């Protein structure tokens, strides 16, 4: 007696398993298709074409991926964007990537090559002399509309206090922006406070640098300006300006931001403070706001009397010493200070000492701004793009090669010490050549810094 099979009936005499239902279904479908006619043949032909096309694409996939990479590699090699130097160190071959052209500071080497030519007499014909022969003489246009100069200003919405940080030029820009913001908010501007800069450490106030009375008088028809807060406002804040709320405005904020965020606080509190205020107003603003900027910059801001008297003496001296060129002169301010070089993220040839000094300066002045995630510092790319400050050696090279008639230079004491110690002899050689060619009137050297002045 045979028991029932797990795979089929007990009467089954074959060991073959039953056909798959999917196979049976497909076979029946083919049979049905053959009964219908030749439509199935066309369908099979299309399927075969699709399969052939897909297989061809997959077979050429490697070529399709390699072709763009091959093209890019050939172009990079053709343009010489990458190069390598092979160095043999005691049977050990070291392959070093060569820096792209113009990405490394090599001015001292350039100076040594140009030195024989600098010792020769200067070229008499100088095309730069045509800079004074301007054919276009257009009068200055006023910054603001003077038609309503006698109109009274509307009632103030409150007092605006700003803190101008940075160097003198940044402080000037902050003052101009403060005038524009005060006009936008219809606020009374308090004479700006100067932040004590960590580099310059200059404790001068606004009145030490600029003429306060003239500043207030020039803006009287556009913005109300006071020297200090009135007594009632001081009592409201316990005679402590630090108690006044400080609005942390983002850099390059739009006029709309000031109208929506700052104006309500100003009207509610009666006085607001914005510190720091450097670059806190966008560049692209309506013409009426830009006009206030222009008015403050070109008319309202005037140096204090001691500074103006000193400047007049310097200009008179330079004109007299430039008698050979008809009183024409060029004045160059060599700005090569620590903070500027650190902010540029450029590398020179000071080695580890330079890198350490620049890292400390960046951390001291900008507190981690250059260490943020995603921040990539590319000194070589900065130099190729022309964003690196000129060293005193480079400026003197330009002066000697340009053959200007009379040059007046001032090297300030904030020149980086590592640079000055390393290239002091080169600077002195250039000074001698400039003196020989009568480009400079005086050249003096001190132990800490180099000063080149006229007189």
UniProtKB/TrEMBL annotation:
- InterPro entries according to UniProt: FucosylTrfase_pln (IPR024709), GDP-Fuc_O-FucTrfase (IPR019378)
GO MF terms held by the record? glycosyltransferase activity
Q: Where are the transmembrane segments?
A: 63-84, 415-435
Keywords in UniProt for this one? Carbohydrate metabolism, Fucose metabolism, Glycosyltransferase, Membrane, Transferase, Transmembrane, Transmembrane helix
Entry keyword Cell membrane: no
Pfam families cross-referenced by the UniProt entry: O-FucT (PF10250)
Spell out the residue ranges making up region: Disordered.
Answer: 1-37
Query: What GO terms in the biological process aspect are recorded for it?
Result: fucose metabolic process
Q: Which PANTHER family match?
A: O-FUCOSYLTRANSFERASE 9, O-FUCOSYLTRANSFERASE FAMILY PROTEIN
Q: Which family does it belong to?
A: Belongs to the glycosyltransferase GT106 family.
Q: What is this protein called?
A: O-fucosyltransferase family protein
Q: Which organism is it from?
A: Citrus sinensis
What are the leading ranks of the lineage? Eukaryota, Viridiplantae, Streptophyta, Embryophyta, Tracheophyta
């Amino acid at each position: 007696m045979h028991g029932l099979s797990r795979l089929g009936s007990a009467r089954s005499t074959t060991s073959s398993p039953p056909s798959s239902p999917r196979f049976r279904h497909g076979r029946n479908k083919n049979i049905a298709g053959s009964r219908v006619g030749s439509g199935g043949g066309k369908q099979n032909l299309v399927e075969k074409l699709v399969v052939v096309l897909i297989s061809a694409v997959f077979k050429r996939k490697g070529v399709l991926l390699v072709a763009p990479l091959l093209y890019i590699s050939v172009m990079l090699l053709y343009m010489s964007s990458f190069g390598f130097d092979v160095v043999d160190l005691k049977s050990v071959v070291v392959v070093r990537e060569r820096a792209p052209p113009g990405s490394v500071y090599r001015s001292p080497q350039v100076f040594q090559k140009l030195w024989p030519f600098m010792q020769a007499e200067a070229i008499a014909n100088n095309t730069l002399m045509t800079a004074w022969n301007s054919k276009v003489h257009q009068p200055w246009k006023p910054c603001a509309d003077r038609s309503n100069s006698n109109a009274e200003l509307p009632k103030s919405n409150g007092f605006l206090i700003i803190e101008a940080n940075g160097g003198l030029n940044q402080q000037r820009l902050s003052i101009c922006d403060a005038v524009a913001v005060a006009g936008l908010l219809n606020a009374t501007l308090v004479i700006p406070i100067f932040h004590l800069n960590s580099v310059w450490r200059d404790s001068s106030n606004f009145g030490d640098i600029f003429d306060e009375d003239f500043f207030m008088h020039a803006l009287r028809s556009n913005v109300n300006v006071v020297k200090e807060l009135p007594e009632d406002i001081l009592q409201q804040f316990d005679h402590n300006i630090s108690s006044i709320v400080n609005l942390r405005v983002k850099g390059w904020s739009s006029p709309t931001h000031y109208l929506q965020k700052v104006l309500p606080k100003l009207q509610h509190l009666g006085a607001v403070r914005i510190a720091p205020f450097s670059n806190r107003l966008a560049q692209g603003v309506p013409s009426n706001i830009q006009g206030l900027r222009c008015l403050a910059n070109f008319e309202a801001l005037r140096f204090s009397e001691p500074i103006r008297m000193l400047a007049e003496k310097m200009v008179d001296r330079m004109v007299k010493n430039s008698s050979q060129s008809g009183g024409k002169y060029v004045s160059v301010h060599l700005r090569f200070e620590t903070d500027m070089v650190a902010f540029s993220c450029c590398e020179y040839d000071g080695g580890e000492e330079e890198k350490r000094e620049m890292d400390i300066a960046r951390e001291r002045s900008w507190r981690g701004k250059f260490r943020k995630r995603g921040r990539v510092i590319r000194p070589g790319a900065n130099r190729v793009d022309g964003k690196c400050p000129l060293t005193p050696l480079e400026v003197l090279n330009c002066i000697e090669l340009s053959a200007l008639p009379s040059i007046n230079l001032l090297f300030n004491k904030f020149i980086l010490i590592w640079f000055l110690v390393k290239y002091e002899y080169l600077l002195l050689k250039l000074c001698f050549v400039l003196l020989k060619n009568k480009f400079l009137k005086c050249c003096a050297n001190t132990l800490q810094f180099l000063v080149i002045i006229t007189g």
